[in-house]
Specification:
The structure is a single chain. A five-stranded antiparallel sheet has the order 1-2-3-4-5, covered by helices on one side. It has two helices and five strands. It has one domain. The chain starts with a helix and ends in a 12-residue tail after the last helix. It is an alpha+beta fold and 130 residues long.
């Protein structure tokens, strides 16, 4: 793991410190945001974060969020890893085609969750085949 071991241990320490203070609690968070020209009500039911080892031994951070957006409850997951020559931290998430209203509606609800939690509009990319 090389230098990753130190980063991993420091991140674990920060997360544990946040847990002891209760600063990582997403439960009960509620906010109205505008996405795609429409206002959405986001209510976070639960959330967690964990480290995982991906393909090739790459350390990943997985953030899982259960939220209700406009009355539709869904489980969302964002996976962060370091990619590219600059070793930049990048997050990925996927909208589900089987979600109520289809993939487009799920992507809009997921974007509302991200914006409510971070205050920033996420980049959304459409892939071939949906």
């Amino acid at each position: 793991m090389g230098g990753w071991k130190e980063v991993y241990e420091k991140a674990k320490e920060i997360i544990e410190e946040g847990r002891t203070r209760g600063s990582l609690t997403l439960k009960g968070f509620e906010k109205r945001v505008e996405v795609g020209g429409r206002e959405h009500v986001v209510k976070v039911i639960d959330g967690s974060a964990e480290f995982d080892v991906g393909r090739g031994g790459k350390i990943l951070l997985r953030i899982k969020i259960t939220a209700e957006v406009d009355g539709v409850k869904s489980d969302y997951e964002i996976t962060f890893g370091r990619y590219g020559r600059r070793n930049a931290a990048v997050g990925f998430a996927v909208a589900r085609a089987d979600a109520p209203g289809g993939g487009e509606a799920d992507a809009e609800r997921f974007a509302a969750v991200i914006e409510a939690l971070t205050g920033r509009k996420p980049g959304v990319y459409h892939m071939k085949g949906g």
